[in-house]
Every structure is written in C-alpha cells, then in structure tokens.
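Reviewers of the previous submission asked for a worked example of the structure-prediction workflow described in the proposal, so we include one complete record here. The input consisted solely of the amino acid sequence. No template or homolog information was supplied to the procedure at any stage.
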Amino acid sequence: MNTTIPLSFLDLAPVPTGSTIADGIAQTVEIAKKSEQVGLNRYWMAEHHNMAGIASAATSVLLSHIGSQTKSIRIGSGGIMLPNHAPLVVAEQFGTLKALYGDRIDLGLGRAPGTDGATFQALRRQMSDAERFPNDVQELLYLLGNDTDDSPVQAFPGAKSNIPLWILGSSLFGATLAAHLGLPYVFASHFAPQMLEHAITAYREQFQPSAYLSKPYVMLAANLLLADDDATANYHFSSAQQSFVRLRRNERGQMPKPVHDMDSIWSASEKAMVDSALSVSFVGSVATVQPKLADFIAKYQPDELIVTANIYDQAARLHSLELIPMLNLFTLHSPVAAA
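From that input alone, the workflow returned the following structure tokens.
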C-alpha cells in the first residue's frame, strides 16, 4: 500500500443562515478553487432537495458552473440520486459536462431519494423506483458506452463518452452491486458509518473485474475540519452537529451558526444519535487529527478518501483546506492557480 492516498472533497454547497442561495453558490466556487489550489483529486457535489441550507439540488447545472471556474480538478456527483431521474436524462446531462470539460467528469450514483417522501412525489417519482436502481445503472452504462449505434434511443451528448461511474452506498446493497458490475465504490461513512467494515469487505471479496475496473477501488467519506487549535475546530463543527439535530426534529432552515455549548441545544438521545452518525469525523488541530486519521486509513486501507466540512463559517472551511498538506497523509497534485 502507498504511504499516501488521493484526497477529494465533497461539497453540499451550504447556504449559511442569513445568506442567499447566490451567496452559497459563490462560496461553493471559492471552495472548489481552494480544493484545486491545495491539490485535491476530485471535487464532488451531492443532490439534495427541499433543504434550505443546501444549494446543490440542480447538481449537474452547478457542476457546470464549477467546471467553468476551475482548470484541472476532477468534478462530479457524489451523487446523483438515480431514482429521481431517467437514465437517458442523466446521460445527456453528464455527456454535456464531458463535452464542456473533457475527461474531468465523474458520475457517482446513489439509490436514496435525497429528500423526504412528499418531495419525492413532487419529483413525480415513487418509492418503488429505487427497486429499479440496478437496472437503471446498467442502462446508464449502456447509454454512455460505445455500443448504442444501432439503438433507437441514444444519448446526444453522452454516447461513447464512457464517463466513469461510481456506486455510492451505506449498506451491503450498494457494495454488492458495485462488486458485481466491477465499478468503484464509495461508502458514505461521513453520516452513516454503521456498516462500514461489512460493506467494504463484501465489496472487495465479491468484486468481479470488468471493462471499467480491473481490481476493487474503495473511496471512504469522512468529515474533516482542521483549525489552528481543537477548540476552534470543535466550535465550527457545532454547525454540522446542529444540522443533524434539526433533521431529526424535522426543522427547516439554513446552515446554523456555530455555538460554544451544544448541550444547550440537544437532548441526550439527540447527542447519541449525532455522535453515532458523525463518528467518522476528524476535528481539531493538525497535531490532534493526524494520528487519528492515519489510524483510520491504516485500518480500512481505502484507495482514496473524500472529505466534507458542511459548516456555517466559510473562512473556517477555507482554512481547513489550507491545512491539509500539513497532515502528510495524502498524494496531492501540484498547486494550480485559480481560474
């Protein structure tokens, strides 16, 4: 195993309390540029709907904007929630992105709706649509591949683009599907870590080499928030913790401001829920985080790590990215000047 691995960034395009969607998108562009400058491998965005604090609902549209503002970093979805879309439409959208930005495009696919039941119905979908996920993935692979010349329906653009597909998951279902299709696998350990070890073991043991991938490739997700000292990092991380409490309470709102005392906000059961969901989190100074993160990488041996910092304070997010090279755990590209 290499002593270092690639590092990527997952951005939920947070909209801080008191800000507009346009403000959130402008901050997202800053984060993408900083990710590229630091030398990260990929910059991915996630599809969510009906969430006031997240600006990435129209994921492919926002990715196009990110592509225009960066030069070399890979951009993609982490992920597109495929049950919300016809595979043909996804193929056309990401085929367009590849036409615009070349081989920088990744397409990560999830099976969850990325929203609540009422919004899922507003998307004109049914919960049973998720059952078609394996077939929809294979249809998408076909539409993006080289063999559609004689098909009555083709993706223009998209056909022959061979955009890399990734399966996202937090259970054995996605791990098994990715293994059987011979696709790379991303485990959502940044918010659903319970099945982490079982899922990546199943994926590696059941993996079948394919035209897309010759051996298993695992990317794990984590929360990473670096600061000059532990207290500052924990203070800013309280925004992410509050967001999970609000989600459990079915409370709407933008990304909350950080607080010094979470005990004044959550109950004991809510704290236990948040601590469990966010247990794969590395928060603190470089000196505090480095050994813990090194142990995590040594234990699970991911081929790549993707991290997120879904918090209120933009300066804290940018500074966290700036501190990443000091960890000495990751293979970083040569710094790229901002577009």
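The longest strand covers residues 218-226. We consider this example representative of the routine output the project will generate in years two and three.
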